Amino acid sequence: MEKLIFSLFLALPLIFTEAHVPGGGFTKLFDFGDSYVDTGNGGRQATSWKKPYGIIFPGKPTGRYSDGRVFTDYIASWMGIRSPIPYRWRKMGKKVQGHGMNFAYGGTGVFDTLVKAPNMTTQINLFQQVLEEKLHTKRDLKSSIALVSLAGNDYAAYLAGNGTIQSLPAFTTSLIRQLSLNMKHIHGMGVRKVAIMAIQPLGCLPQVSALTSYPNCSVTGNSISKFHNQILEKSVQKLNKETKDSVYIKVDIYSAFTAAMKSQEHHPGAH
Ligand SMILES: *[C@@H]1O[C@H](CO)[C@@H](O)[C@H](O)[C@H]1NC(C)=O
Ligand SMILES: *[C@@H]1O[C@H](CO)[C@@H](O)[C@H](O)[C@H]1NC(C)=O
Ligand SMILES: *[C@@H]1O[C@H](CO)[C@@H](O)[C@H](O)[C@H]1NC(C)=O
User: Fold this and answer.
1) Over the stretch 67-84, which tens digit does the pLDDT of each residue have?
2) Bridge partners of 71?
3) Protein residue closest via CA to atom 1 of ligand 2
4) Which residue's CA lies nearest to atom 12 of ligand 2?
5) Whose C-alpha lies nearest to ligand 3, atom 1?
6) Residue 214: pLDDT above 70?
7) DSSP letter at 101?
8) What distance in Å separates the CA atoms of residue 67 and residue 211, rounded to the nearest whole number?
9) pLDDT band, residue 135 (cuts 50/70/90)
10) Measured from the CB, is residue 161 less than 6 Å from ligand 2?
11) Which of 46, 83, 102, 263 could form a disulfide with 31 if both were Cys (CB 3.0 to 4.6 A apart)?
């Protein structure tokens, strides 16, 4: 996993580089989202605090749902800053708050999901509280990026509940409507750039492809992702028309995942 994610990130800096400065001159990172970006907000009872999570980086479990780094760590590294501290550790002193803050909780969504943890709205409210406590100033926000990774768990909850494939397009539309409102809210609070992660090919997740004994990714699963990403793209374009400098950025992890899997396809066992 560490290797796979790493190769995805080799391509990523290109997406962000505007000014030709490493990290684009951004100095703070704020995360909102799920396990793709959570770096330890789950309590000690969370599975992310058990092995094999964390065995490659940093060598022991730290609350990340990965054996290594997660997206937050790579983006922070590209920005040339330390990974922002999880909200849970915010009382640890001013010094550790210098790089932004991570409000992401594994398993969460734009709406409520199967996991009882703060949804996107609540995560933004936590950010609002942190700003009111003056842990970060308006000036800090001018050089900040928000990284948003949400929606995957909303689909899991939708499909696990009574959601049908027929009414899925309507669900996607309402999901992205809420997501866009939330992203506008984050920008309205002063954050300079808001990067939203598209969703990965859901049909290639082992949990999904196991249902058909793995030989191929689920076509239905992937079409859910493609549809979501198309609507997201339109929504990002629309949001950018409302702002002077392109504030919103879609991070195309669908293509990144596909490319990484393709490069491995002649090496079975290396996945
Ligand atoms: C998010 O969670 C809060 C608190 O539990 C709840 O009041 C709110 O309705 C939820 N928002 C959405 C969009 O699901
Ligand atoms: C699904 O539908 C059934 C019957 O209409 C209802 O009893 C149940 O609460 C629903 N489940 C969810 C998760 O909405
Ligand atoms: C998997 O995909 C390959 C190539 O498209 C196809 O030939 C094969 O029949 C598929 N296998 C299953 C079980 O769907």
Assistant:
1) 999 999 999 999 999 999
2) none
3) 162
4) 161
5) 216
6) yes
7) E
8) 24
9) confident
10) yes
11) 102
Q: Nearest to residue 149, comparing CAs of 252, 233, 5, 46?
A: 252
Burial (CB < 10 A; 0-12, 13-18, 19+), residue 22, is exposed
Domains of the chain: 2-37+82-262 (3.40.50)
Atom 2 of ligand 2, nearest CA residue:
162
Establish whether residue 67 lines the binding site of ligand 1, counting it when its CB lies within 6 angstroms of any ligand atom.
no
pLDDT at site 270: 55
Number of residues assigned to the chain: 271
Pocket test for ligand 2, best of 162, 164, 167, 171 (most atoms within 8 A of CB): 162
Q: Write down the pTM of the prediction.
A: 0.87
Distance 137 CA to ligand 1 centre (A): 27
The model's confidence at residue 269, banded by pLDDT at 50, 70 and 90, is low
* Residues 92-127: tens digit of each pLDDT: 866 667 899 999 999 999 999 999 999 999 999 999
